[in-house]
Amino acid sequence: MLNLIRRRRSPAAPTIAQTTATADAPDGAAVVDRAPRVACALSSCLAGERATVLAMGCGEMEACRLRTLGLCEGAAVSVVRTRDCTLLEVRGSRLAVCLSLASDITVLPVA
Amino acid sequence: MRIALIGNPNTGKSTLFNALTGMRQKVGNFAGVTVERVEGSYQTADGERVAVLDLPGSYSLSANSPDEEIALEVLLGHAPGIPRPDVIVVVVDALHIERNLYLTTQLLELGLPIVVALNQIDAANAAGVEIDVPELIHELGVTVVPTVATRRDGLETLRRAIMQAPSLPLPSRRFTLPQVADEALAPVRKLVMDAGFSANVAEMEALRLLAVAAPEKHLAHIAGLDDAVAQARTDLLDAGINPRGLEAELRYGWISGVCSRNVIHNPTTRHLIGDRIDAIALHRVGGPLVFLAIMGLVFQAIFSWVTPIADGVEEFVGTLGSMVGTLLPPGDLRSLIVDGVIAGVGSVVVFLPQIAILFLAIGILEDSGYMARAALVMDRYMRRVGLHGKSFIPMLSGFACAVPAIMSARTIEEPKDRLATIMVVPLMSCSARLPVYTLLIGSFVPATLVLGVFNLQGLTMFAMYLLGTVAALGVAAIFKRTLLRAPSRPMLIELPPYRLPRPSSLAISVSHRAMLFLKRAGTVILAVSILLWALATYPRSEAAPGTPVELAQEQQLEQSFLGHLGRGIEPVVRPLGFDWKIGVSIAASFAAREVFVSTMGTIYGVGSGDEGSPALSARLEAERDPVTGQPVYTTLVALSLMVFYVFALMCVSTVAITVRETGGGATGWGWAGLQFGYMFVLAWGSAFLVYAGGKALGFG
Q1: pLDDT for B624-670, tens place per residue?
Q2: CB contact under 8 A, A68 and B95
Q3: Of A1, B565, B614, B649, which alpha carbon lies 20 to 30 A from A103's?
């Protein structure tokens, strides 16, 4: 079950994720159980994880920018780094997305 | 024939432009560097001249930035003074073909002949990417020419393809809309067509408008368009389609199919090295440390390594002045050429090596791919004062010269962030302030050791730089919370792959900027130098026979228009502890700050006015107030004067560039006036606080 326990890194709650806080981590961060392949915020994905974009909850202007850069609904993304910002690979390019923006993007992690 | 070159940032578009036209132009690796309108031309084998317009780097025609909006207007023939191009050349980065084809699919719908330059095909192959070009031609319906612009590979084929493009069938949309979307968008298409746009363009615009916040300038005049787009969105939502994401979904859907059929990705280790570098360069602790280390190197290069070259240029200017002086007979003409033109322009040209080194450093950082990482690292800190991470580049450049620094603010997409950055960049201590600091610190700050390690003179110099930087951040925070209040756009930046900078590209970049700097020195600064010379030379005063040269010079200056100006200024600067001579020097330094030192040299008749001149230092220390008999220059006055120079916008070139970069005309002059005004108030107030506060505490 270890692989099902994820540290929640973003203060913003996943919009669609069916997550349940179960305990407090030693550093005070909430620990959540998440079933595999359950939608969550992009900001809560871990480095090395792959996911499919489901929905863009950010402002119109930012969503438009993201979509033209290839980060649109249905796009496959790979999370490369997750500290301070989300660094991801989408359509062969590397994008750095700040955590606040990444928390507005809902994705479905790929098993 | 007129062609327009367009492509995503970092596709090698500018390099291809240089290769096609031979024109020298900035080449960079930082998203959005190509922001100026740059044109060139070449002649075909048949003798036909082809005009080439290099459009700003654009990810799409969605007008997400001013650059993209300009590109869209040009391609639609709506840009004032720029005819619609006959052919579009789309530069597609072969390594990132999937993302790059998004813009291409939009361009296919503009009703113009198109040629695709599949650039950096060598890098793509090296990274294991194989592209079936004949099939791609078939899928896109336009000519595709593989190129390597840096090696000029494929250039002749591309030129031939450009000439043939108008005779080929016009490209068109490569996918079909779902029926419900087609019906929902019909009223929007009709409105756009009724406004005079072609059916092709109306198709493209109708789909594009679903995603953008509001119709742009070229569509804003169409009555009822907003309502029609809103209705189309409602209809699509009712049909279960996300209208905002429809365009991206359809285009990328089609592109994914094309790429899956025609692009093979062989597994390679291309990201491994970059990831290892990023692990340090983007690390929470390591990232800022790497950034500081790199900045330390840049400053070392600007202030130390370049000194021998700067000395050489200074010597050359001095020798040139002496040579011309000996060739011309004594009189006003010689004075104008030697004291006005050569001394005035020369005092600015001596900073050319520093400017060149700064742009070389910026070029290396951009071309290597590090600049985007640095912006990302700095974003966390810049946001605390309401600025964007990209603001740090202009602010850093401001340490060398505010003029190119303000120009580099164009890479900031959000207009209010860009304006706030432009407004505070001149507070960063530029290299022209260095001679002023050097003269005053060398003369009035003792070289004592502090804590047994630090030299007080060095600490004072550091304090001046720190003061300017802190003020710039503080003023930016005030602007962003008042006049330029707007939510900062979240950080979203493409990180280009790390690459070894190409010396030829760097040479073009540096020479382009150096030429811009020299051009300015030869125009604005030349004109102001001549004006200042005239003000200091006329009306002529005849010195009594036997008067020492130094005294005669001082008398001449006192009687001149500039002397009268100084007397007029004196009441304003007297509360700061300055006399009329300092007032004159401050007024004269509006041409360029470093002119302060040479003006002081002229006033005190000690020759060149070199800041290191012991004669000038001694003369300043010996200067007495004729009324009180007290020394004019004390450490307190020197501090007050330095603080004044930290904050004051004493630079006509900066004013001129601010006018241009903030929109020109009345708007531009308004921002430049505000910039000059607030900086003068800040300078005067701070200098007054230092002087009056110091006096009250019993110093000086």
Answers
A1: 776 777 787 888 998 999 999 999 988 877 888 888 788 777 888 99
A2: no
A3: A1
